[in-house]
Design goal:
Blueprint: H1 5-33, H2 38-42, H3 53-72, H4 86-101, H5 105-109, E1 116-118, E2 126-128, H6 131-156, H7 163-167
Antiparallel strand pairs: 1-2
């Protein structure tokens, strides 16, 4: 039986966003236990020209909600990117999870050959011939990049997390 677009997207986003949220809980606890200013972790970068942890989480959320919305033919929710704390990031992830959970398999699987057109922070648009090309070649890789980078930032900063934390519950 072929895999559906819904099965390849929503459960994956749910699993990884939940995992990311759990990793942030561990990071917050670590900061408290070690008397580290939480902002030191929230603003941590792997290299000076990379986004900090806060932005990595925002972007992971953006790709989960944006990809899901486009697959469903729905409006992409707009978030203001005003998060400044772990609590704010938890709330953003919860809001993203609530949105993606509101989308039905029928909404996502009903238009497999639909072209998807985006303008990713540039005046130039990008066209994807079908939902599956958009999901597999753009949406999921972008999402995983930001989740992985958030994980790497925290691991690099001494948070006791590993592969099981990254993968989460499935």
């Amino acid at each position: 039986m072929p895999i559906t677009l819904y099965a390849a997207s929503i459960p994956v986003f749910r699993q990884m966003l939940t995992s990311l949220n759990d990793i942030l809980v561990k990071a917050e606890a670590h900061a408290g236990a070690k008397k580290i200013d939480p902002n030191a972790l929230l603003q941590a970068r792997l290299f000076p020209d990379m986004f900090p942890l806060l932005r990595q989480v925002q972007l992971a959320s953006d790709f989960a909600k944006g990809t899901s919305a486009r697959l469903a033919g729905a409006d992409v929710p707009v978030y203001e990117d005003k998060e400044q704390s772990f609590a704010d990031l938890h709330a953003r992830i919860a809001k993203t999870l609530a949105f993606i959970e509101s989308l039905s398999p029928e909404q996502i699987d009903g238009r497999p050959e639909q072209e998807i057109v985006i303008q990713p922070d540039t005046p130039r648009e990008r066209r994807f011939a079908s939902q599956s090309v958009y999901l597999m070649h753009y949406g999921l890789p972008q999402f995983f990049f930001h989740v992985t980078t958030a994980y790497a930032l925290l691991r690099h900063n001494g948070i006791d997390i590993g592969k099981r934390d990254f993968v989460g519950t499935y």
